[in-house]
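#struct-help
A.M.: can someone run this one for me? Single chain, 430 residues.
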Amino acid sequence: MLSSFQEVIFIMNEKLRNNDIALASLRLAIIQPAFNGTYPDMSKQDYYARIAEKPLKLPDGREVRYSPGTYSCWESAYRKGGFDALIPKERSDKGHCRRLDADTISKIYELRERFPRLTASGIRSKMIADGLINASDASVSTFQRFIRKNSLKGDSPAGIRDRKAFEEEFATGMYQADTLYGPFIKENGVSRRAYCIMILDDKSRLIVGGKFFYQDNAMNFQRVFRDAVATYGIPGKLYVDNGSPYKNEQLPLICGQLGTVLIHTPLRDGASKGKVERNFRTLRQRFLNTLDASSLKDIGQLNRMLADYIRKHNTSVHSATGMPPYSRYMEDLSHIRMPKSSEWLEECFLHRVKRKVRNDATVMLDKKFFDVPMEFIGSSVEIRYRPGELHSAFILQNDKRFPLMPTDKTANSKVKRSNPYNVRYGGDIL
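D.P.: on it. Structure tokens below:
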């Protein structure tokens, strides 16, 4: 059992890791047009120069202006190390700070004049990005105190929600996903609610994935998403709401491995999911409203009926496009990015968690203990595994895999240790 202090530390570390993953996802979103060659500008350099003209809003709310060179460095890092290379690394000098010097103060006044709406944290981040100061030189609160004391507080722009009709240029440019409450099914004497998790291609309106489950959770969504990617290709973007199946630590990591930009809908803005909501209305009108749920034997029967509905939808003329979704999808076949292999796709969908190895060479996953090699005692390790299959878990270290084994204390007690001392217990020498 963890102490209350350990629980606090664990929660804090998880929050920091989630923020780092969100920042890496943002970086991927920025560089993806350059990486894929889909930027609207004359050249990649022009693209980076254009986006560098405006500050970038970070997941923690700060606004930072980066140079074109910084964006180019992110792209280079991603090409070499994938999504992991975009996750910020902890500085070795973390925890040190000092007061603002004359040069820093002078730069603050200059930036305030150039960018009157830039916040204190934004000014600090800009100076860090430009190499004028190190992150350890002064905290955000130090900048805030100086700006407040010297009456340098800027104006805040009014929050205006902008919405326009949109459609991706090519199929698989964006997948939209959501969950629909389905009927109750009585199976083995128990009545349970069924949930339909469905994924729609934005351009073609092709239903690329859809299945009923008894649980609306992250694991089930990831199963539908993986099958959709395997069958129809990797989306440039994935558009989802803020429910628990879509807002968790693992999905950004999965999307990062795929090279997919994860986008969450604005809070309390149902209209932003117009296409997938319309798809669900049609599903309910043409399928669920005509369904006699009492005749269903199990959820498998319901899913077979859903598969028939999806096939009909994908091959019938869509009212919004005037074409069958599958035909519209096939028109863009040359632009569709398919997985490199089934093995590669499996790797992308592995769950990844950080754990510190205990002194008895064990780690805990899903409230179960697993043995790890002795060499990892005291180390922080990354564990990967197929969701729902803890027996597949392994430590990834320097591109090598170290399988985890369920802890068997009885068996471990019979293993001869190579200790430097012989210890006598009840007459036996160990």
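A.M.: thanks! The longest helix spans residues 4-36.
D.P.: also worth noting: Residues 4-149 form one domain.
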